[in-house]
Amino acid sequence: MKPEANLTGLFVPLVTPFTDDLRLSPNALARLADEALSAGGARGLVALGTTAEAATLTAEEKRAVIRICSAVCRSHAAPLIVGVGTNDTAAAVTLLQELAQRGDVAAALVPTPPYTRPGEAGTLAHFTALAEHGGLPLVVYDIPYRTGQPVGTSTLKALGHLPEVVGVKYATGAVDAATMELLGSPTPDFAVLGGDDAVISPLLAAGARGGILASANVRTADYAELISLWRRDAAGPARRLGAELARLSAALFAEPNPTVIKGVLHAQGRIPSPAVRLPLLAASADSVRRAADLATAGPHRAHRETAA
């Protein structure tokens, strides 16, 4: 039997708040984490994902982020997923083993090997090695428009049968025949979590168990409610809320992630600065204003109606 990682519902991949001089802001990160799990209603958190600008964090900063997020997750009895992104299989095994030794990480979010493009057989061999030697449950991150490595449905299903592989963050950029095949014949103990924010509603309608959604840094409770509505088969309210949140997600991704999200969070007074680290540049004022207007729209009520 596979390890239980409780991969149902909303997982928020947190931004990493910086000060104006680009230092980590631990207090702001702790507040964001607590808000997501309390008032926001998220099931769990993701630390060191793409949204966290993990590639620009030092090793010390990464340890601090994990420590902060882990403490908040413990206080809420919520699972923590940690991003492990590398195209070096041996290095990934070492990182996983170090995380496993902590004893407070529910799973690792691991992309298909980026840039190397090892092919589907190489991708399967990579995750097989991580499953056998890493010592931690794995969530495959399938995002070919970032990694350059597409993964077919048959390979995803094979990955889903590996020991320790408990789910996939599915962010292929499309809801197509392959998506429907994956969701239409689910692999036991293998959760499909939507990762394309703008189309999370149709993914949930087709059978995804939840989502890892950068947009949920903003209006967290509504994204959690969207997942709940689809799981309750409340299709009418879910479609209305899904359409509203799709507009928000499109605005939040108008410029490279997480620049607009950080701009909105700063405008809301939730983080001390909208600063991002190079090679990212801060989002334009127009993009932030458009997204902030959608983020601060009056509370959505229609989706709370009961299904007919």
Report on this model:
With 308 residues, this protein is of the alpha/beta class. It contains twelve helices and eight strands. The chain has helices at 26-37, 59-76, 89-102, 119-133, 144-147, 153-160, 177-184, 200-206, 220-231, 235-252, 259-267, 285-295; strands at 9-13, 44-47, 80-83, 107-111, 138-142, 165-170, 191-194, 210-212. Strands 1-2-3-4-5-6-7-8 form an eight-stranded parallel beta barrel, surrounded by six helices. Helix 3 links the parallel strand 3 (80-83) and strand 4. Helix 9 packs antiparallel against helix 10. The protein is globular, with a radius of gyration of 18 Å. The termini are far apart. Mean pLDDT is 94; it is low at 301-308.
Summary tags:
alpha/beta, 8-stranded parallel barrel, 8 strands, 12% strand, globular, disordered C terminus
Largest sheet: 8 strands, parallel, barrel
Percent of sequence in beta strands? 5-15%
Tell me the series of helices and strands, N- to C-terminal. EHEHEHEHEHHEHEHEHHHH
Instruction: Give the end-to-end Cα distance, rounded to a whole number of Å.
Output: 39 Å
DSSP helix fraction = 40-55%
Shape: globular
Structural class: alpha/beta
Instruction: Please tell me how large the radius of gyration is.
Output: 18 Å
Low-confidence stretches: 301-308
Query: Please, what is the average pLDDT?
Result: 94
Number of contiguous helices: 12
DSSP, total strands = 8
Task: Describe the strand arrangement of the main beta sheet, using strand numbers.
Answer: 1-2-3-4-5-6-7-8
